[in-house]
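Class, look over these structure tokens:
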Amino acid sequence: MSGRAVGMYGTTSPASRTAATFSAVDSTSSTWPTALRSDSSTGSSPRKVAERECAARRADEEGEPEVAEQGVAGQRNGAEAHDYYRTPRAQHPRSDNRMLFTSVANIYAFDAFHQVETLLTQPLLMVAGSRAGSLWQAEQLLPRVNSPKELAVIDGAGHVSLYDVPEYVDQVTAHLSPFFTKYL
């Protein structure tokens, strides 16, 4: 289950007996504050981000949707994300592999870890790469979870490399099997 979904799914689906995720991300806490922070080097500010969102909505209504950049080189996971999402590694013939800028605000407004302290009652396994820009989110989520929980850190792995790089996928699987055996 994706990192964004594990918190919400686990808290809204108590019939599920366990939850496991790798590369857990809560967009609200990671990207939105960065996007809203004033940055003198790029001229971005909360006001400019809001203005761009409005312009993107108008363009979308006129049939000219603005595409958000994925994999910005300056972001910790950016180059790795670009290598995955914008190359044949993750492309599908029926997908143009783009995200509309108008989707960005909706993604950032989604709080993946909302009320996990109370509502996430299933055992939780989180797997993260030691080089992942998202590792800190798993580390911060861990003490908030009151059910049995484990954090497995895969040495040398980034955020996206856990998706399909065989040496890391094998290590993720090696953690999943005993976890599910123990809790199912």
In short: Confidence is low (pLDDT under 50) at residues 1-5, 31-43. Residues 27-110 form a domain with the Arc Repressor Mutant, subunit A fold (CATH 1.10.10).
